[in-house]
Design brief:
The chain is mostly helical. It has 2 domains: about 35 residues; about 240 residues, MetI-like fold (Orthogonal Bundle). The chain contains 13 helices and no strands. Helix 2 packs across helix 13, helix 3 packs parallel to helix 7 and helix 5 crosses helix 7. The longest helix is centred in the first third of the chain and has 36 residues.
Length: about 325
């Protein structure tokens, strides 16, 4: 620019903001997050460490600092009720996870075909997931009651041969619990799978139609392998839910008939409150903690590897 004397002058660049101004936002954000970090450290991490520490002591009704090594774990795995609960949760977990995955995927595929009233169908299938497991357990307890439930209704309609008394049979009760869990969780899987399906390029569908590839083969061999993150997320959530199952069992069967639906979480709660055996209960809780970690960490790692390969970074 030209000043009054006719000489050219170079305009000075605008002043940069001070470094202190740039630091205000991170400091304020960290100050706002401090209570949350304290809660995580003290409540979650602190109680987890305390639980593991108590499981290594001779605690009974009250906490004790007398070190006992792995004796509580030896007692735990030497208890027939704990072994039975492990078998039950494995049976429940396999049926529940696979059933919810298959039903949720089929629902997602059906809705992905752009059916009419799609929003209404999505809401209806997802609604059970909004219910608590207590509500689901009580509802299915009524439905499976031979005196007032589905069996009684069917027989009143003239179907005298129909039976649906799973909750009263020790060989079928765990499958009744799995059926109630599938009914509630299939909607969550549907939403996750539908999000993955909607992210697939439309050109892929056009190419399969041009090539004349059957629809079932397209989903099985082309589409499903691309749903890696959705499948991993759904599998992880369902597996964690299966390991921690407690309220659904209590509301539906209360661990019966006998101990046919006893699960580790119920064993731990009974040991803690009914039998007042703190050391045994914390040992069971620690086993459950490391079981969940053993399941979730590999899944998260595999999902990250899959995402990196999809982005071309590996």
């Amino acid at each position: 620019m030209v000043d009054q004397s006719g000489a050219r002058s170079i305009a000075s660049p605008p002043a940069r903001p001070k470094a202190i101004g740039r630091l205000r936002l991170p400091v304020a954000a960290m100050a706002a997050l401090t209570p949350a970090w304290l809660i995580i450290l003290l409540v979650y991490l602190g109680t987890t460490v305390w639980t593991v520490q108590i499981s290594l002591t001779k605690s009974r009704m009250l906490p004790s600092n007398e070190f006992a090594g792995l004796s509580q774990y030896q007692r735990l795995f030497g208890t027939a009720r704990w072994s039975n609960s492990i078998e039950n949760v494995l049976t429940f977990g396999v049926v529940y996870v696979l059933g919810a995955m298959v039903v949720g995927l089929l629902l997602a595929i059906a809705i992905d075909r752009r059916v009419r009233f799609e929003s209404a169908w999505r809401t209806m299938f997802l609604y059970p997931y909004a219910l608590s497991f207590i509500v689901t357990g009580l509802m299915w307890q009524w439905l499976m009651n031979p005196e007032i439930g589905i069996q009684a209704t069917a027989r009143a309609a003239g179907l005298g041969w129909f039976t649906f008394d799973w909750t009263t049979r020790s060989d079928m009760a765990i499958y009744a619990v799995a059926l109630a869990g599938i009914w509630q969780s299939a909607g969550l899987v549907m939403v996750l799978m539908l999000a993955g399906l909607r992210g697939i390029d439309a050109d892929l569908w056009r190419a399969t139609r041009i090539e004349g590839i059957p629809m079932w083969r397209t989903y099985l061999t082309i589409v499903l392998p691309q749903l890696g993150p959705s499948v991993a997320t759904a599998f992880m959530l369902l597996t964690m839910g299966a390991v921690r199952t407690f309220d659904l069992v209590v509301a539906l069967t209360n661990g019966g008939p006998g101990q046919s639906t006893e699960v580790p979480a119920k064993f731990i709660m009974d040991s803690l409150f009914a039998r007042q055996d703190l050391g045994l209960a914390t040992a069971g809780a620690t086993v459950m903690l490391f079981t969940v970690m053993a399941v979730t960490i590999p899944i998260l790692y595999a999902r990250d590897i899959w995402a990196r390969r999809q982005n071309g970074r590996l």
